[in-house]
Amino acid sequence: MYPIRTGKGMLGRGWRVFGLALRGSQVAAGMREAGIEVLEVGSRAEALLRLPVLLRWLRQREIGVVHCHKSGDLLLAALLKSWHPLRLIFTEHMGVRRPKRDWLHRWIYGKVDLVLSISDETLRRNRIALPLPAERFRRLWLGTELQGCSEPAAAIRRELGLPDGPLIGMVGRFSRAKGQGELLKAFILLLARYPTAQLLLVGGKLATEGANEPFVAELQGFIDEHQLAERVHLTGFRRDTRRLLQAMDVVVIPSHNEAFGLTVIEAMAAGKPIVGADSGAIPEVLGEAGLLANVFDPAALAQQIMRVLDDPELAASLQTQARLRAEQEFGLAAHLMRLERCYLDPCDPYPF
C-alpha cells in the first residue's frame, strides 16, 4: 500500500511516477488504479534477464529516481544504476536483523544513495547491519491520510450485528507477531469486569490476504474452547478500516516487535484511545498519546484497557492527544514533502 499511496501523492505534487511490479499482483493493480503507469514482470529473475528492456524503458521515460521497498529488489536496481544515471532510494520497512557485509551486499548497497528507516528502532538496526556510512541513513516516519469518519459509531455497530457493550478492537494482519493471541487472553480477564464487552478483530483470514491460516484456525479454536463466539468477532478482510476504527471504544495494538505500526497512526488519526505494546517502535510512534503494556502479560494488558473504559476523562484526553499528534507528525502531506526532499537531494541534511 505504501508505494501506491506515495506514488499517487507524488503525482499530485507534479511528479511523473512509474511502477515496476510483479505481473498480476495487487500492487500492479493498485498502481494502475491510482493512475500510475506500470511495467509488469513475471518474477525478479525475469526482470534480471530483461535488463536491456528495463534500461530502455527507464531511458525512454527519463526516470532519474528509483525507490525500492524490498531488499530483494536492490540487486536489479543496482544493476540498472550501473548502466543508467539515477538516484537510488531504499525504504527498509522492517529493520535488518542480520549483518549484510559480504562482498555482494557491499557492492549492492554501495549503489544506494539513501536508506530510509521508518522508525528510530529500525534506524538503529539498519545502521548496525548494513555496509553504509551513517550519513546515508535517515529516519522518515510513514504518513497517512488524516480523514476521519463522521458516521455514528452506533450505526456501524448495528451494521456489523454487534450487541451493546464496550467494543475493544484491533486492525492487523493475522499472524502470531501481531498479538491477536495475547489480546484474546487479556479479553477473557476483561470480561470479569465488563461481561457485555465485545472484541472486534479486523483483518483478512486467508493466506492470499496476508494471513497465517494455521494461526487463524488456532485462534478460532481458542474462541470455541472458551465459548467466546458471541463476544469475539473476526471480520475478515475489509477496505473500510476507518469506519471500523470509528466503531471502537478502545483500539489495541499488541504487536510483539512492530517496526513502525501504520495502524497506530490510523487509530490516532481517528481520534481513538489506544493501548499499545511497550516494545518495538510503538512507544516511539505513540508518544504520550496512548497507554502501553507488556503484551505478554495478559493481566497488564487487560488492566490498561480497563483504565480507559473506567475513566471517561482519561479516554477523552487520549483521544485529543492522539488526533493532535497524528496531525503534527504523521500527515501524508508532510510525509510527501520530506520524501520529495530525499528524491531531490539524498544528502539534504533536513532533520526529519
UniProtKB/TrEMBL annotation:
Residues 8-140 form the Glycosyltransferase subfamily 4-like N-terminal domain. GO terms for molecular function: glycosyltransferase activity. Keywords: Glycosyltransferase, Transferase. Residues 156-324 form the Glycosyl transferase family domain. One of its GO terms (biological process) is carbohydrate derivative metabolic process. CDD domains: GT4_PimA-like. This is Glycosyltransferase family 4 protein. It comes from Aeromonas simiae. The lineage of its organism: Bacteria, Pseudomonadati, Pseudomonadota, Gammaproteobacteria, Aeromonadales.
